[in-house]
Structures are given as C-alpha cells and as structure tokens.
Write a structure and sequence with these properties.
CATH topology: Jelly Rolls
Bound molecules: calcium ion
Shape: globular
Structural class: alpha+beta
Helix content: 10-25%
Largest sheet: 6 strands, antiparallel
CATH superfamily: Galactose-binding domain-like
Number of domains: 1
C-alpha cells in the first residue's frame, strides 16, 4: 500500500512538472500559417512567399529552403540588378497586442544569412487599407523598429522587441538590400510574431 502511495505521489509530481513546463513555454507564434503578400517573389526552388510563415525555420527533406525571396537576377534581372525597396507583409487574422518580431535568415551552410537586408523597418497596422495597398508607401503603417547597417547575420535569428502595440498587419520593409550572385535580393526563412 505504501509503495502504491509513493508511486501515485511520484506520478502526480511528474504531471505537475510537465504542466508547469508547458505553461512556461506558452509563447504563441501569431504569424504561423498567416497569409502573406510580398513586393516580389521567386515562387520556385523552395522560395515561395507562403513559406515565410509555414512554421519551418530550417531545411525540409527534399526542399533546399523553405522561405521567401524577392525577385532574383535569374528571373527578374531588371529588378535585381539595382538596389530597391522590397517588402513582405503578414495578416495575423485579427488585432493582437504584439511586442516582438523574430526574423530568421536563410540557414543553409555557406549561404546562411545571405540576402538578409542591411536597412529595414518593422511596421504595423490595424487598417485594412494597409493590406490592400500594393506599393511601399508608409501611409497606413506605423514603424515600431528601425534597423540600419545590420551586419551579415549568418544563421542567427534576429530578435526585435518593442513597446507593445496593436497590430493586425505586420510588414518588414527593406530599403537597402545585400548584393550577391543573385543580385540585390531580400530573403528570409521565417518570420515569427509574438505578444
Ligand atoms: Ca519557413
């Protein structure tokens, strides 16, 4: 009987530990699976706009990358030849109070971090016009984070924390792109958004 009580106590303690750990990890990525709209997009070779919110930060078996790439020289030489403003925006589905955006650079070996932008802003909006808008203007957007002279990040996630703000739409707008063999391009493996 005593043994049974001890077994039961141990079981209860284990369950408590499991639930308390689960509670501590309750940080929900609001961007996971959210629809996106890009300025331009490759839509080939594992670079599809929707892959930037597919929940996968790294490789997938059989797919070299799962992320978003703006236009590259191979398909759009007229765009990629020169530095340009490229952006991608996310619809979180409803208004949340958000305070953090994580940007994951491409993670693949010697290319890790390539085409992560040099100058960019993180912007938010609750206005549906921000989603419909097709150009890069700031009319419907509030900038919550400005990054200039960002070093080449390698495979390191870039975390951006800011004062909590109401947002349904989140836009990452790059105004100074990194140059490489594919031209001036903006690439990300994943975008994550948190309260
Ligand atoms: Ca991804």
């Amino acid at each position: 009987m005593k043994k049974a009580i001890w077994t039961l106590t141990a079981l209860l303690i284990s369950l408590l530990l499991i639930f308390s750990t689960a509670g501590a990890q309750e940080k929900v990525n609001l961007a996971k699976g959210a629809p996106v709209k890009p300025s331009t997009s490759v839509e080939a070779f594992g670079w599809f706009a929707e892959y930037v919110t597919d929940g996968m930060r790294e490789f997938d078996e059989g797919t070299p990358i799962r992320g978003w790439s703006s236009a590259i020289r191979y398909f759009n030489p007229e765009i990629a030849r020169e530095n340009s403003t490229q952006w991608i925006k996310i619809d979180l589905g409803k208004v949340y109070t958000i305070a953090q955006v994580d940007l994951y650079p491409r993670p693949d070996d010697s290319n890790a971090g390539d085409y992560f932008p040099i100058d960019y802003v993180i912007q938010v909006s609750t206005d549906d016009k921000a989603w419909e808008q097709e150009d890069a203007s700031d009319e419907f957007w509030t900038t919550v984070c400005t990054v200039t002279d960002a070093p080449h990040p390698g495979a390191q996630v870039q975390v951006h924390a800011f004062e909590p703000v109401a947002a349904r739409y989140v836009r990452i707008k790059a105004t100074n792109l990194r140059d490489g063999g594919d031209g001036y391009v903006f690439q990300l493996a994943e975008i994550e958004v948190f309260e």
